[in-house]
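User: I'm writing a tutorial on reading structure tokens. Could you give me a worked example: one chain, its sequence, then its tokens, then a sentence or two explaining what the tokens reveal?
Assistant: Sure. Here is the example chain.
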Amino acid sequence: MATTETALPEYATTPAHRDGNVLRWLTAYTASLVGDSVYFVALGWSAQKAASPAEVGLVMAAGALPRALLMLGGGVVADRFDPRRVILGSDTLRCLLILAAAAGIALTAPALWVLVAVALVFGAVDALFVPAVGALPPRITSPDQLARVTGLRSLSMRLGQIAGPPIGGLAMGLGGPAAAFAVAGALFALSLPLLLTVRIRSLGSHDAERPGPGTARQDLLDGLRYIRRHRLIGPLVAAGAVCELGLIGTLNVGMVLLNAERGWGPSGYGWIVSSFSAGAAASATLLAIAGWLPRAGLMMAGTLLVGCAGAAAIALVPTLWLAVVLAAVIGLCAGIFGSLDNALIQTAADPAYLGRVTSVVMLTMVGLAPLSYPLVGAAIGAWGAAPVFIGCGAFASLGVAIALASSAVRRAELPRRS
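And here are its predicted structure tokens:
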């Protein structure tokens, strides 16, 4: 599918949250994210009807393996080809895959091997989609608007997490798994015409720096060297990876076990998770509207430190309402840290490397961070929640040390319109 780069102004005159080009991309991205959530609901309930509880876990985890293994390769693809073309192609493949699954399930009872195959293929296609999404923003807006785009993208992710499961549940209730898969496929299809209308901004001199006809392995190694040698991106990626490894297992698996230990139950867990999400959404809204925050590098490190301290302290508070308030603070700080980290990487990276940079960042989230889940669970089983939360918070705070050790991070600022 041919795409052309449009001669957009080097610096757009319209803020990103009022730019029709950005909003068309954002709407397409949101539809795709909601489709993701509906797909996971459909996959889980289909597996539940066809398999044992252990096999349900196998089906739900199947997509993570190819996503983690192929993510770095997806970054190479995003940098070698037009990111929009990669997004269009991967969304088309996801649409056809899920609609085919819907048709198959409508005609016969879902077989376990079919669901595993769907999950594996979907995960492999996701490994192309995610890095390309990360490489596209600099091509649809100007550098001084990338922070706003980051905030808007975070809001889209929250909306997908909030809206997707109820839509999937409603489709399941009305028409069963086949209807839920069909709704997911329709949402992927909805994103395609919107993406076709998105105009691509020329990268100017950077186009000449895009990877040549080298091998995929050479391009991958070149991207890893670029990250390691970059004075700002290297520390930002390392700080984010340490933060994910320290906090993701604690906030996901650990929070469930903490609620059980304290007797707060499922409703308490729901309040804590909702409060965290509200704080993260508030930070994304702040960045989307403001578009710029002062002393971005230091603010990023400071909010990470507060978030780590909050994650350690949440296992020490005596009452549920204090945990809910603290979860909102953690979510707010985590949202600011994540948005600033992403925005600084987006503005500092040569666009020719953005796909590979994004693939490394996402690999730490979907490939490495989940490895902490069984470790956190086993540790809480052995020692209780409080020491594990404190230890994980202390480990995550090493990301603060990594960030502050870099003079480039300490001096980092977001572009600001003059």
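What the tokens reveal: The chain has 17 helices and two strands. The longest strand covers residues 5-6.
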